[in-house]
Amino acid sequence: MTKSSEKKSYTLTPSWKHYLSGYLLSILAVPLAGIGLIGLYFVRKRHKSTRYIITDTQISSIDSKYQRNVDLVNIENIELEEGWWKRKLGIGNLILHTSASELNITGIENPRELKDLLEKAISAEIRKQQEEEKNKPKEPKYSPGSMDKMEYLTGLWQQGLISEDDYENERKHFE
């Protein structure tokens, strides 16, 4: 896990342990006319092409073909997936569920710690968003410019240019 000082982001990559079976099969296939070398190339390429960037507000999954972004506030559930062998190796997968889709973070070391950190970050981001909503200025009940029109109408009435009945009829349109 590396931390970037300018953006408060963490970059994660899948552990080499996640690709252990691919590496082992490729090494065993090396004596077969070099097929294992080709396998090693593709396993290594796939291993290095995947990364996850976690910031204060979102998680991005980047591989050789796609980039997916999920805002933390949209994550409804985090599921930990690890079998017996992966638990022994200290790796696992996290599945982040949103209302529309899910994002898989595969082959991460210490997945339980990451799950706990993500849950804390999600709750902090939700609290922050709720505070911003509370402190957000309330929208006026009147449309922009209607107060100016009301003042103009009041001025006409005070100067005697319109009658009391006309003033009351027009004033009802602004309430």
UniProtKB/TrEMBL annotation:
Give the start-end ranges of region Disordered: 128-147
Q: InterPro entries this protein is in?
A: YdbS-like_PH
Keywords (alphabetical) are: Membrane, Transmembrane, Transmembrane helix
Q: Which domain of life is it from?
A: Bacteria
The YdbS-like PH domain is annotated at 49-117
Q: Which Pfam families match?
A: bPH_2
Is-annotated flag, keyword Transcription? no
**Residue ranges of the TM segments:** 20-43
Comp. bias intervals (Basic and acidic residues): 128-141
Q: What is this protein called?
A: PH domain-containing protein
Protein source organism: Halalkalibaculum roseum
The organism's lineage is:
Bacteria, Pseudomonadati, Balneolota, Balneolia, Balneolales
